[in-house]
Amino acid sequence: MNISRRFFLTRGGVSLATIGAGALVGPGFLARAALAAVDRPAGDKRVFVCLFQRGAADGLSMVVPHGDPFYYQHRNEIAIGRPSKTASGGAIDLDGFFGLHPAMKALTPLYKSGELAMIHACGSPSSSRSHFDMQDFMEAAAPDNKSVQDGWLNRTLRQRRGDGNTSPFRAVSMTSTVPRSLQGDEPAIAIRDLSTFGIQSAGGSSSAMASGFEGLYANAAGDVLHGTGKESFDAIALLKKADPTKYVPAKSVKYPDGAFGRSLMQVAQLIKADVGLEIACVEVDGWDTHVNQGGANGTLAGRLFDLSRGLAAFRQDLGDHMDEVMVLTMTEFGRAARQNGDRGTDHGHASCFFALGGRVNGGKVHGSWPGLAPHKLFEERDLAVTTDFRDVFAEVCTLHMGLQTNQLASVFPRFDASVERFRGIVRV
């Protein structure tokens, strides 16, 4: 039996992929001291959730620079209004300069409690405006380098290989296929819906799992997966005890309807089920707002409403588990500073990332603001990048996932990941 490097088992919505068969916030010495103190003992349950906003989300609408007058000059129809105590529809003030889109008000309590932070003017140094290329570059963590075959999250797993976690649920993507960021030599699985993952029979009732995923898996385990078979069945047994069809979120928690809300809810379930999850990937699309983007209301506002409600529900659902969890949103690039003739925005450059979690240094908008004056714009049209996305990823890898600085070169090819450029997103 000839087995390629990438072996896929697919049934319905389930895909099992066995891959391989600005200014620093705080002085630099504080970040170095924090790295020296990072300790991930056996049994550490820290989890990283990567949330990709595919389609290029407009950071200038998500976190509005209402203190920059040029913002309103560039967007006379779709700008989010300045914060106001009397008028509705304005930005929710964060720090006197930046404000949150009004549709994202569900995140305001998390910002005030210090669990939510933003990194503005963040993105890739690549000048490409191709969705495909820029998503590929971000997930490989290798801008303008198409020779890199594996993803940055898979390389992170490889560097953490010595942690003793052999669970097949170590890295999970709530998608139909394994995303680019998790492709590589370390095993990762794609699960579109937990309710179809070895939990139910086709008829919807519990069964001995002689068919479906487990039956398909059993036929290949001996020849392909060898020693991982028992661990996979053990993990399925754990999931069976926490039957997704009967999962009830914490009291009063309501996730948004649809695939995005379901994905976040099921990641929360995996964390609570203690199946060895370290990395989870979630995707949400619909951010390519060329036409009729809207301002405080409209197409984009609807997407932001669901995004914020989903994140707020996830945090509430996890409760104390959130102490060991970090969510990072990302998008391949932002939107042009100026609105176009169709009351939308074209492909841009920098955008805004969000970080949520118990270890996040929240209640702040991190990064260095480049300004929106015409002469400050990238290529005279876009918000400039002042924080390379790889510096954010590197900070997550070290201060949250526990890598040492000498391991970062293996995660980020041809990039000097320096502690001095960390933005202070993770509390130390």
The computed structural class is: alpha/beta
Mean pLDDT: 84
* CATH architecture assignment of one domain: 3-Layer(aba) Sandwich
Number of helices: 12
Q: SSE string, helix = H, strand = E?
A: EEHEHEHEEHEHHEEHHHEHEEEEHH
Helix percent band: 25-40%
Biggest β-sheet, characterized?
11 strands, mixed
- CATH fold descriptor of one domain: Alkaline Phosphatase, subunit A
Using the coordinates above, name the CATH class of one domain: Alpha Beta
Cα distance spanning the termini: 51 Å
- SS strand fraction: 5-15%
Query: How large, in whole angstroms, is the Cα Rg?
Result: 21 Å
Tell me, briefly, the overall form. globular
How many strand segments?
14
Report low-confidence residues grouped into runs of 5 or more: 1-42, 199-229
Could you describe the 3D structure shown?
- The strands form two sheets. Strands 1, 2, 3, 7, 8, 9, 10, 11, 12, 13 and 14 form an eleven-stranded mixed β-sheet that branches. Strands 4-6-5 form a three-stranded antiparallel β-sheet.
- It is globular.
- It has twelve helices and 14 strands.
- It has a domain at 23-174 and 277-421: Alkaline Phosphatase, subunit A, CATH 3.40.720.
- A hairpin with a 5-residue loop joins strand 5 (92-93) and strand 6.
- The longest helix is centred in the last third of the chain and has 20 residues, at 299-318.
- The protein is of the alpha/beta class and 428 residues long.
